Amino acid sequence: MALQARAAAAFSAMKAIGIPEKRVKPVLKNLLKVYDKSWTLIEDENYRILADAIFEFEAEEASKKEAELHDESSRPPLKRLRLKHQEDHGSSSSSETTLKRLKIEEGSQLPTVSIEKENPCAEPEPASFQMTLRSRQKEVPSPLACATQESEEEPSQLNLRTRRTEIEHAQTQIHGRDKGKRLLLSPQVTRCQEIEEPQGCLIDNRTDTESFPSTLNPSIKGKEPLPPQIADREKESAAFRPPSTVCFKEPKIKPGIFPSPKEKSPNPYSLVTPKSEPFTGDYHQLEVPIAVIHPSDFVRRNGEAHIGPAHNDGCSNGNVLTGNTAGFKAMAPMDENEGASKTVNENGENLQLANIPEASPSNFEIASSSSGEVKITLSYNHLPQQPEIHIPNLEAVLKMVEDKCLKSYRIIEPQISLSKLMQDLCQSFFDLSNDSASSGEERSSSSPHVSPNVDTSKKSSVEGAVRCDDHDSFVPLTSISNDSHRFRSPSEAVNKTPGRQSLCDQDGIESSRTNQEVLGNNCERKEQENPTSSSLDSLAAASGSKFSPDEVRPLHDVNDISRGEEKVRVSLVNEVSSEPYPPMFKYIPKNLVYQKAYVNFSLARIGDEDYCSNCFGDCLSSSIPCACARETGGEFAYTLEGLVKEGFLDECVSMNRNPQEHNHVYCNNCPLERSKIGRAPDPCKGHLVRKFIKECWSKCGCSKLCGNRVVQRGITCNLQVFFSSEGKGWGLRTLEDLPRGTFVCEYVGEILTNMELYTRNAKSKGEKHTYPVLLDADWGAERVLKDEEALCLDATHFGNVARFINHRCFDANLVEIPVEIETPDHHYYHLAFFTTRDVDALEELTWDYGIDFDDRKHPVKAFQCRCGSKCCRDMKRSHRTKGKALILR
Ligand SMILES: C[S@@+](CC[C@H](N)C(=O)[O-])C[C@H]1O[C@@H](n2cnc3c(N)ncnc32)[C@H](O)[C@@H]1O
């Protein structure tokens, strides 16, 4: 190749890694001299020698300038070095170069891909970065380390010609002080952890022999607030975000999942560390979020770790891990002499296992205020008898929540960072707590101090109340609603209860009654009797010892009454009256059996004709309808757009509006009549033969995204609970236009037998609202329905948004359609609401309860209908004595 072409190729290779021609030229010339014009040597390994030489040359130049600057006393030494460096190369180019160097060194060869200029890493790097890098270049062939931290303790010792020993010493300084502030990548596990904060990044490819001995990291605790100078440094490098280009290799460990040491190790109480990271007690060195599995203290809720207050300060248990991976800080071991053992993970990699004392919980610090006063920790505990546990990658957890914010909660800020949110939370908490402290006695007398570590073991009486298994002793919740609060303006409420400020800010309420008054004593007692009842609603009224008796938490979260149980948030507003919340109930997204109801979801009960094993993907797109279309006459009920088909919907609406025009069946022994205890049963009044939708389900071969799975996917519309201005109490409305046939929500509640409902109703006389719906599709069947098969749904105490749907005679915009999902038994089914027409945003959603306002015998009094429909069945009723029943079909 011609000389010119070779030179051009060299320039272009260097350019690819960000080194401009003018910086290459002098070095290249020199090299050619030194190598006696041997281009082959220079071209070898993709111009590695050339790149090295450039770096070396520049480092030496910088070193000279550093020496020159040494005497200058006006600038702080480190700044001086950096400034000088910037002067030499311009900030952007220098940082760019540094990044390229990172890549070169990591793989021991030049990268062939270019790095984007707008790389967020392209910030001026501190001097120690260069020092470490260059020294490793010279003395340690492949390992690489980068750190944004500057060694401020001994700035004068910084010398770009530092020998390896000096470097290690300097690194020790960094290790020793930057608790939880670094990220290390090793060749074995090289998943890049993007660092949220400016703490910097250390990337390490050390082999066993090169690893820093544990003695170099003498005091890793991870819990102490950072020394101020470190905090300052963090600020300085605030813009530093290692980009994905700093990831060197694909992770070998499954992202998001880490093998449970319990599975892989003879010792289940172990920390997992990669093989090439000898156990030193310095968990800075772990390049992946550290998972600590602790058997003795694991509180598992539905298979998930829970985030909650730390059990203690995180240090006292002797299992504090340090390391900052994308904003998470696990807390470093107090006892660094803990032993280590080896095992092999599922990827065949050797893992170092560090023993953990049995009785210590494992806490991960996930965010904190800037100076460490306020912290959010995640505690992860593990019960020894639980066999298979995968500790999720904390980064993946954050990512998942961030995705959720984007998708489910419709937070549209694409750059949302959960870690940042949590840090803001800590900071705000700290700021507010300082504000309170400064505002003196006035507040302290009227409101209790709230410690961030609320003792969650002390459950509120409402929690207890809701968990009362026996609803007979349940305090009627409606009785605490309308008159149980006195309201003030939001600002007054804030002043009154600063400890609950964030809640009261939002809701602007305070209670004028004590918890006991509001909640009654029965359930308090029940709660004591039932210590196993788990924590329910953190926003429920509280009676914990940390709150004064007159301090009541909001009954509901106005931002999302479902408390995250639905895929969408369901907000709550009252623009009409001062009633801030509906009466207390527990939001559940799916039906739950109360006690005796017979609901059998077993796979074995689903016969061959009841599922589509041979389907694949979307059943709706198949030319031949599958077995699941059988219930709907060989045609699916849904359109490709997920709406109920016109004809099917028409029929359902007609059945609802004119039931007398449709087929009925009559029981020989009607369970409904049977349930009227103390009365001779009347003859069966007949049951409508209902149309059903049958959805595909888990036993089917199709995908979860199959078009014949609508109701089971849950609420997807934007809904809002609001206070109606027509005297109907709370109602439900849509916040978006809904086309005809749209699935809105399911009617969800406790599954009760009719007997149970009857007993419950008999004991809850005087309740303003009741929320029962009969499930009567199988009634009138040839066989006599057993009591435990005659079911209803009661949403009074446990329910979802559907419990707010008000009644409208005749022309309601919703119709309920039975849906078969998990069981072919039609004595149990889902009751789903679909729009009967196009519904505009902000329209109230209504449903015809099917009330016979003339039924004077019904045990539950009917309300006076205010539906406003021209066809209201209760129009004439105003002159009559009331005494009618609310019976929902
Ligand atoms: C299933 S709840 C609906 C939600 C209820 N409005 C609330 O505030 O919780 C049924 C109760 O709402 C009230 N309601 C529903 N529809 C009504 C209507 N058309 N007119 C008057 N009250 C109605 C009645 O008190 C009824 O017992």
Features:
27 strands; 12% strand; five-stranded mixed β-sheet; binds S-adenosylmethionine; alpha+beta; elongated; 889 residues; disordered C terminus
Task: Walk me through what this model shows.
Helix content is about 25%, strand content about 10%. With about 900 residues, the protein is of the alpha+beta class. It is elongated, with a radius of gyration of 34 Å. The strands form 8 sheets. Strands 12-18-19-27-24 form a 5-stranded mixed sheet, with no helix packed on it. Strands 13, 14, 21, 22 and 23 form a 5-stranded mixed sheet that branches. Residues about 75-360, about 435-550 and about 880-889 have low confidence and may be disordered. Helix 1 (about 5-15) crosses helix 3, helix 4 crosses helix 5 and helix 6 packs across helix 7. It is built from 20 helices and 27 strands. The N and C termini lie far apart (about 90 Å). It folds into 4 domains: about 5-155, no CATH class; about 180-405, no CATH class; about 440-555, no CATH class; about 590-760 and about 775-845, Beta Complex (Beta-clip-like), CATH 2.170.270.10. S-adenosylmethionine (SAM) binds next to strand 19 and strand 24. S-adenosylmethionine binds near residues 731 and 804. It holds the Pfam family Pre-SET. GO terms for molecular function: histone methyltransferase activity; zinc ion binding.
List the topology elements.
Elements: H1 3-16, H2 21-34, H3 39-69, H4 77-89, H5 91-107, H6 127-139, H7 164-177, H8 228-236, E1 257-258, H9 261-264, E2 270-274, E3 324-325, E4 328-330, E5 340-344, E6 350-355, E7 362-368, E8 375-380, E9 391-392, H10 394-407, H11 418-438, H12 441-446, H13 461-467, E10 485-487, H14 490-496, H15 501-507, E11 509-511, H16 515-519, H17 522-529, E12 571-573, E13 586-587, E14 592-593, H18 646-657, E15 664-665, H19 671-674, E16 687-688, E17 693-694, E18 719-723, E19 730-734, E20 743-746, E21 749-753, H20 754-763, E22 772-775, E23 791-799, E24 806-807, E25 814-820, E26 830-835, E27 844-847
Parallel strand pairs: 12-18, 13-23, 14-21, 17-25, 24-27
Antiparallel strand pairs: 1-9, 2-6, 3-4, 4-7, 5-6, 7-8, 10-11, 15-16, 18-19, 19-27, 20-26, 21-23, 22-23, 25-26
Helix pairs in contact: 1-2, 1-3, 2-3, 3-4, 3-6, 4-5, 5-6, 6-7, 13-17, 14-15
S-adenosylmethionine (SAM) is lined by residues 582, 728-731, 769, 771, 803-804, 806-807, 863, 865-867, 886.
Subcellular location: Chromosome; Nucleus
GO molecular function: histone methyltransferase activity; zinc ion binding
Domain Pre-SET: 611-714
